[in-house]
Amino acid sequence: MSGYFNYYPFAAVVGQEQAKRAILIALVNQKAGGLLISGVTGTAKSVLVRGAAALSGERALLNLPLNVTEDMLFGSIDLEYAVAKGERRFEPGLLGRADGNVLYIDEVNLLRPELLTAVLDINIAGENRVERDGISFTHKAEYTVIGTMDPREGVLPNHILDRFGLFVETENLKEKEPRREIMQRLLDFARDGKAFREQYAEETEQLKAQVARARELLPEVEISEAMLELAVQYCTQAFCAGHRADLYLLETARAIAALAGRTYILPKDMEEAALYVLPHRMRKPPEPQPEEEPPQEEPEEQEEETDPPEDDADDTDGQEDTLPPPPPPENGDNEEEQNDDGEQDKDEPDSPEQNPQNNDQQEDKVDGIDTHFPMPKMVLDMGRDQINRKGSGKRSLTKTDLKQGRYVRAEIPKNKVDDLAFDATIRAAAPYQRHRPKNDCAINIQQGDLRQRVREKRIGTTFLFVVDASGSMGAQERMRAVKGAIFAMLQEAYQKRDKVGMIAFRRKVAEELLPITRSVDLAQKRLAELPTGGKTPLAEGLAQAFISLDMLKRKEPDAEPVLVLVTDGRANSVVQEGEDPVESALKLARQIHKAKITSVVIDTEMDFIKLGVARQVAAEMGANYYKLKQLSQGDILHIVRNLGI
Question: Cα–Cα 20 to 30 A to 344, which of 11, 59, 249, 612?
Answer without folding.
Answer: 612
